[in-house]
């Protein structure tokens, strides 16, 4: 069991780095929870492969710093879509 978790942590980190993925995207891809992704990268991976952990952490920190922008864009899209639907009828 422990070997599987270590392997998963490495796979998760590689996915995050390769695809510049967010925690949510990664969790969906691997079929696990966001908290598991976070724990694998921030706690488990540091003990397994510190270099890989720091690279993944850079991507996660960048995504975290940009999340308010993505949220604003998503809200804007939502209301633009609603407006377009209302003008059709």
UniProtKB/TrEMBL annotation:
Example GO molecular function: DNA-binding transcription factor activity
Q: Please name the Pfam families in this protein's record.
A: SpoIIID
| Record-linked NCBIfam families | spore_III_D (TIGR02844)
Q: Which organism is it from?
A: Anaeromicropila populeti
Transcription in keyword set: yes
Domain of life of the source: Bacteria
Keyword tags: DNA-binding, Transcription, Transcription regulation
Q: What is this protein called?
A: Putative DeoR family transcriptional regulator, stage III sporulation protein D
InterPro entries named in the record: Spore_III_D, Tscrpt_reg_HTH_DeoR_CS
Give the stretches traversing the membrane: none
